[in-house]
UniProtKB/TrEMBL annotation:
Domain Lactate/malate dehydrogenase N-terminal stretches: 2-146
Organism: Cetraspora pellucida
The protein, known as: malate dehydrogenase
This enzyme's EC code(s): 1.1.1.37
Residues reported to bind substrate: R82, R88, N120, R154
């Protein structure tokens, strides 16, 4: 039995993400939780002829508890999206409280689950979830993931538009965090190998770092990326299920994680990024979640400079997330 819960299931991301999860035949129960409309979304998806039984929950009648109980995997796209002119950090005021309350529910009712955090600002919401779980003494660093898959999906797409390569085949590691200058694409490590001019690298790097802004601007006040994010979230969730349910080894996905999840390399990884507790890396998944956090490897001088810019901004976002949880809980 593989139960997956989506928290924020009626939203712009939540609905297409729930659809894609309903199509994943590894899932036997899909629990949709939101403060509005979740029973309707569940009724609609429930007519699709795949194995997952779909249930919808609202806050009334212990809806969060019922959605979370026995969940193997929880995906959180709950929270407000950006409008033009806003940074992801501008969402902190509202989304921090939403994520903190949902994390409290997870600590109480599904402390063993894998948790995938989509809600922005991811650089801060992941530390919020971790601090709540720590407070309840149920924190397992191998099971908590900030979803940065959209950054690598964009890196594959945008770099392929320049090189002409097949975007399905192209992989570009993206490290750091998930906001503007904290998004650090490592185009020197693109696979299959590809060489770009200095100007192409600078333009591509900027486009990957600010890909979210492209969508926010184009949607013109109607929100941010939803459909590409749903695909990114479903891909990441599918990889977690492949590794933790089916036992498939060697799956690598990027994610913003707590570096202590890798006991062997954690201290070294931390010192390589100025002592940060959280960082996005390529992660090798295993039957218990994070099996290994991959190192950054050889990078160019340009990429080193990008990292130097990312680290202080990430530090502030991490502190903000962790501190707020402590004072407000
Ligand atoms: P949306 O407004 O369309 O949907 C959000 C949903 O969350 C709504 O249905 C709302 O009712 C629900 N919600 C609000 N408070 C809730 C609560 N306490 N419990 C449960 N549900 C609650 O927004 P969206 O476009 O789906 O974006 C959601 C979040 O995802 C935003 O914060 C956005 O910035 C973020 N996002 C992250 C990435 C990423 O790469 N990590 C990409 C795109 C968007
Ligand atoms: C994205 O990268 O598309 C998301 O983080 C949403 C946003 O606010 O840009």
């Amino acid at each position: 039995m593989v139960k997956v819960a989506v928290l924020g299931a009626s939203g712009g991301i939540g609905q297409p993400l729930s659809l894609l999860l309903k199509l994943n035949e590894c899932v036997t129960e899909l629990a949709l939780y939101d403060i509005v409309n979740s029973p309707g979304v569940a009724a609609d998806l429930g007519h699709i002829n795949t194995p997952a039984r779909v249930t919808g929950y609202l806050p009334a009648d212990e809806g969060l508890k019922r959605a979370l109980t026995n969940a193997h995997l929880i995906v959180i796209p709950a929270g407000v999206p950006r409008k033009p002119g806003m940074t992801r950090d501008d969402l902190f005021k509202i989304n921090a409280g939403i994520v903190r309350d949902l994390a409290t529910g997870i600590a109480q009712h599904a402390s063993n689950a894998y948790v995938l955090i989509i809600s922005n600002p991811v650089n801060s919401t992941v530390p919020i979830v971790v601090e709540v779980l720590k407070k309840h003494c149920v924190f397992n660093p191998k099971k908590i993931f900030g979803v940065t898959t959209l950054d690598v999906i964009r890196a594959s797409t945008f770099s392929s538009e320049v090189s002409g390569a097949d975007p399905c085949e192209v992989r570009v590691p993206v490290v750091g965090g998930h906001s503007g200058p904290t998004i650090v694409p490592l185009l020197s490590q693109i696979s299959p190998p590809q060489s770009f001019s200095k100007e192409q690298i600078e333009k591509l790097t900027h486009r990957i770092q600010y890909g979210g802004d492209e969508v926010v601007k184009a949607k013109d006040g109607a929100g941010s990326a939803t459909l590409s994010m749903a695909q990114a979230g479903a891909r990441f969730a599918a990889s977690i299920l492949e590794a933790t349910v089916k036992g498939k080894a060697g799956i690598i996905e990027p994610s913003y994680v707590c570096l202590e999840a890798d006991k062997d390399r954690g201290a070294h990884l931390k010192s390589a990024v100025g002592g940060l507790e959280y960082f996005s890396h390529n992660i090798e998944l295993g039957p218990e979640g994070i099996h290994k956090i991959c190192e950054i490897g050889d990078i160019t001088e340009y990429e080193k400079k990008l990292l130097e810019t990312a680290i202080p901004e990430l530090k502030l976002s991490i502190e903000k997330g962790a501190k707020t949880t402590i004072t407000n809980c």
